[in-house]
Amino acid sequence: MSSTGVLPLPEPIGEASPPTRSPTQTPSVAGRTWRSRSGEFLGVGGATLLLFPLAALLRGVIGLDTAELVVGFVTFHAAAVINDPHFSVTYLLFYRKARARLLGAEFGKLQRFRYAFAGVIVPVALAAWAVSAIVSRSAASLGLMMQLMFFLVGWHYVKQGFGVLVVLSARQGFSFNARERRLVLAHCFCAWLYARASPVDSGTEYFEQGVVFRSLPHPPGLEAATEAAFWLSTLGLGWALVSVWRRQRRLPPLSALAGFLVTVWLWVVYSSIDPVMVYLIPALHSVQYLYFVWLLKRNEARAEEGPPLFRRPAAVRVGALAVGAIGLGWLILHGAPAGFDKAFAIDDAVQAGDLGVTPFLAAFVTFVNLHHYFMDSVLWRRDNPETRFLSRDSDRIGA
User: Fold this and answer.
1) Tens digit of each residue's pLDDT (9 = 90 or more) over 281-309
2) How many separate domains does the chain show?
3) For 122, which of 50, 326, 376, 394 is 20 to 30 Å away at the CA?
């Protein structure tokens, strides 16, 4: 799952100008096999285009209710190795070398401030909010925190889609100028706001992770206004693509463009057109995220295998990261909240009231989602020196 103007927010990966190549440079991925290109296409969102007809076929064969039950069951258990690690691996990446990043020269002054904000101030504030809501037994307060999560998740998705477009394009020597990038980003933001404003909501009662709360109503006319902005921004997106075609005589790579459009249009704006796909979209988003984590850490590990560092083989380091992410994901989203609920929560549903019998589970899930969004907004900026490993595949240090 996964900001708005609450932060002077960031450019995640790709929002800053991508590296450019001279006409004589050959992109490091030019010789990739059809198999690797297909894997990339499917991993960054292309699989969605195959799953939609399969979901429709499943509904036709076994019926909607059974299809939702089957897919919901599979995705619930698959989350342990897909969704949960996509959250937890962010912690493993973000807090690595935390002291050096916060106090050393690895980051510039502005980036150190962003790092401190996302890594210290935000989690303290979120934890205080959650603890206050549980201690005061305020389902409304915890529900408001959940609504912030729902509001920001669309921002997180579209910014990741933007990163897919820019980074995968840059890896093949394709770049966007400043005006084109602004038009693409405008489309992202308009899509997010339109998706959040639709459908019209005068205040609905929700039951989420055991907590009962009422949503904040949308102002009258908000849906129509955001829809108009969305379609206007679509014209801007089209203009940007025409502009890059005129400059470079080609469009962005298929994986980059498909990943972007699938993310914005099918995962955010029209995510509810198929009730079965609703269960699959979070997993697809997580796979997309994990693909870039894999790309980053694999390339970094390959670069450090040889002289002068001679570190452990890339497969070992990436495998250790995967195991660590799975274990930490279980701890922060299952083990720890279950332990707190067992020790401190009211186990009688009537006495528990609107806060439910698993308030710590609700608090942990909400905290992890929100903190993930903020950490991402810092981690994937080009200010982070490690993001240079996304632009190439296996350069050795010192080469």
Assistant:
1) 999 999 999 999 999 999 999 999 888 88
2) 1
3) 326
